[in-house]
Amino acid sequence: MAGAQDRFRPMHEAHSIEQVVITVRFDRPLTDEAIRSADETMSSLQDALPRRDSIQGMAFQVGPQGMMPIAPPIIDVPNGIARTRTDNGGALIKDLRIDRQSINFRTFEYTRWEAVWTEAREYFGSLLPRLGETNIAAYALSYVDKFVWTGPRETCRPTSLLKSGSLYVSPASFDADDLWHCHSGRFISANGHTKRLEAVNIDCVDENDITGITPQFVRVVRISTTLTDFLNQQGFSPYDLPVIDAIGYLDDAAQDLHSSLKSMFGAIVNDDTADQVGLNAS
Amino acid sequence: MVLATFQMGQYFQSPSIAAGTCAQLLPISSSNSELGKFDNKLILFTAGVGDEQTAYARETNEQERTIAILRGWKRYPDNWDHEMAKAPNPTSLQSAISFMSSLSNEFMMPEPMLHDSGRAGLFWGEDQLYADLEFLENGSIAYYIERGKDRHKGVVEFDKRNIPPVLKPLLTA
Amino acid sequence: MQSGCSCSEINASTQGQIDRVGLVADAAPDCACESHSLSQYSPGIVQDEETIVRMVCVPMHVDKKKPKLLPNFFSHAFSFGMSAQRLEKAGSTELAKWLNNFLANGGDRVWLGYVQAPCKKIRGILLQDESSRSFCVYDAASDESPAHAEVCASRRLEEADRLEARAHLMKAFSEILPRTSLMGGEVQNIVDSKLLARDVPSQWGSLTSSGVSQTF
Lengths: 282, 173, 216
Hints:
The complex is a heterotrimer. Chain A has 4 helices and 11 strands. By secondary structure, chain A is of the alpha+beta class. Chain A is globular and about 60 Å long. Chain C has one domain (7-215). Chain C has helices at 7-14, 20-27, 92-104, 119-123, 159-172, 186-190, 193-196, 205-208, and strands spanning 51-56, 82-86, 113-118, 135-139, 148-153, 175-177, 214-215. Chain B binds chain C through residues 69, 81-84, 86, 111, 113-117, 121, 123, 125, 130, 132, 134, 136, 142-144, 146, 151, 153-155, and chain C through 16, 18, 58, 60-61, 63-65, 68, 70-72, 75-76, 79-80, 105-106, 128, 159-164, 166-167, 170, 216.
């Protein structure tokens, strides 16, 4: 039986956010010239994101024989560039990646949304106009929240964390007394020209905690919530969003995704948990 | 082209995240023809190459711990100090939390405190800095700061987003 | 005194009110009640030459990482009146009794050490550019604690002035002394051993065992 002190502790005490990912996807692959231009632009981010890596690609063809690799052409332009920042202990703090299909910004540091978007906007704002003639096909925002059970693993119960009757949680999960997961998703209409994918993945797993003197397994619940907006989908009005002046559109779009994800998260965790992480604080 | 998701082992996960892995967050849905068709489609799976990093989950920082302490005080009742203290004032506490959230890396981190009036406060007591901030019920901040030989005091408005300009140079490291 | 009441009456009528310091200052400005004893148990009014002691026992009043005080240790000086003891008037038995009562009244309280300041120094605190005193030190004797005193703000202060006055108190009581040094260790020997044995945060270990003092 859980002790009085046993509870789900938000990963970073004041909040539970492990990482935030912002993605912008293109409607056609970027050219070599675009990748070179992006690399040059990203080199000015040396102070914020000191480490640079090339991203190499592997192509597969899927057909009746299954998945078959395709030999890559010999070229001197990588398929993408990644710039990262780690802390003194080697933990990844931020990374910014561009490949033929997308730009991703991921951060493991979170104080408030405005700070995250201000930084992401700086990167996207400087990169997007340099990518040539391509349009935005989709954009996404994702949060991964993590809660750590402080008591013995066998006393961990989902009801200590999850909102009873939540739309996003399978009823069977509430009775779980061992590991469980619940993954769900649906398409909805965000507006006349935007099709939205709502994806919620909740996993109760045993994680190897190596931060203490003796590594041990702790039971955690990870809640991944993602909203992806797609443009130019069947049944929706066409909407061309060239990368060159997309940042203004993305300002509003990102804010909308953030607000919606906040509501979704609030519909997943119980009121005590929401209070603990300051979800409803003004 | 369709981008495939790459999902790590589900039930036993190390918090270490290989920095070279590029995991797209778009799940494949067979209900959507544009996204779910695989036959003869070219799939591009991207992965980082370069020295593999074993990245451990970052440590919770002092700023986050302090915010958690402040938030925990919301539940204190009247007489929380057994000497007739008033219950923490929600506006004052939230202001202190917002102030903490607004501190960037350039600031030294304070100690949180609660007064018998129910007001929250933040304190810096370092060699060259003495700073006592008290968060008032109307959302403003009373302060007394000694920085080196200089002294500053007053009451300043706080918009809950930005460190008041008068305080910024006094509290940075 | 403005109200025509005696200091004893003022003291009695304002007990337990969070605005007590302000009410007393309104009724008896300029620290008028310093020259009056408040009860039959009083050993006399507090003299400038006396040493005022205050025990450090409340976790909320101390830094979480270092063995240092936080300014809220002095908050009561502006509200209810800040409880203190008169070192020269109190015996070890009285101090130990006071500590036993205080520690028993809060499960999270631990006797971490004490601070002291000359009464003259407290009464001499002035805010910048002011000539009138910031604090009064009253005799606040009771039957249980005849050597009990109170440090109170001399008047209602503006918000920022109050914080400045608090900073002066921090400086006046600047050295945290180990509990083993209070009256040569006599008090510690008398305090209830169960209360004394409560867990001490690690950063306070030196003050509760070996007797090393700590300065701000």
